[in-house]
Design brief:
It is built from nine helices and five strands, in the order H-H-H-H-H-H-E-E-H-E-H-E-E-H. The chain is α+β, with helices and mostly antiparallel strands. Strands 2-1-3-4-5 form a five-stranded mixed beta sheet, with helices on both faces. Strand 1 and strand 2 form a beta hairpin. Helix 2 packs across helix 3 and helix 7 packs across helix 8. It starts with 11 loop residues before the first helix and ends with a helix.
């Protein structure tokens, strides 16, 4: 039986026709979405640069916005829109497969249960938000910042940006302490204060700030930092 060998130089489209989508790398799949490269870069090379840039600066390609992508050399508005559209379609398809029933947030324990396995073994701080609708059901999850072993610096505009874009009515913010100890730091207290102030201005309710440790967690709301302004000012 004669077996056709696929040329090494074959383009992603031809490779897909020969081997199927499963035989393509992430860069090759993205190259099919952006379609063309530039005068000095092939579509695959450009796609590889986009993936690397998004991972380092945006927390992953799934979090990218059109404006952010156009900062990459070789990516114009048309390519950026195609990438964001593909990512959004992927998210929606995944959501559909997970079922129509959405999780309704009732307390901080539930938030911890959702995020614990994902966050407690991370060696860097991840700051995330759960974006909720008016029924307090989770509509989406956003990675806001990935820091070092000690901190993941955030700004209110970064935290509430995804919520605004997605029309969220409320958010829950959460981050992990790689040390395993979820005791709030001075920075955690300061961030919580600033987020509470921003939530009132924006009209997007901040339900809680959960700190995930190793098999344990701290709810800033349960600790009194949401209602006891004197406590937060003295801290």
């Amino acid at each position: 039986m004669h077996i056709k060998k696929m040329p090494e130089s074959e383009r992603p489209q031809e490779k897909m026709l020969y081997a199927g989508a499963g035989g393509l790398s992430n860069a090759e799949l993205l190259a099919l979405i952006i379609r063309t490269g530039t005068g000095s870069k092939s579509a695959v090379r450009l796609a590889d640069e986009v993936i690397s840039y998004a991972s380092e600066n945006m927390g992953g390609l799934g979090m990218a916005e059109v404006k952010e992508l156009t900062e990459i050399d070789g990516i114009g508005e048309a390519k950026a829109c195609s990438i964001v559209a593909a990512m959004e379609l992927s998210k929606r398809l995944i959501s559909d497969r997970q079922g129509a029933v959405k999780v309704r947030i009732r307390d901080s324990q539930q938030v911890a249960d959702i995020l614990m396995e994902e966050m407690m073994y991370e060696k860097r701080e991840f700051f995330m938000t759960l974006n909720l609708n008016t029924k307090l059901q989770i509509e989406s999850k956003s990675v806001i910042s990935i820091g070092n072993i000690d901190s993941a610096p955030v700004h209110p505009r970064e935290v509430f940006g995804p919520a605004i874009r997605r029309g969220a009515a409320a958010v829950v913010v959460a981050h992990n302490h790689p040390s395993g100890d979820p005791t709030p730091s001075m920075q955690d207290i300061d961030v919580t204060k600033r987020l509470l102030e921003a939530s009132k201005i924006l009209g997007i309710k901040l339900l809680d700030h959960v700190i995930v440790g190793n098999g344990c967690f701290t709810s800033m709301k349960a600790e009194g930092y949401f209602t006891d302004q004197e406590k937060i000012l003295k801290a």
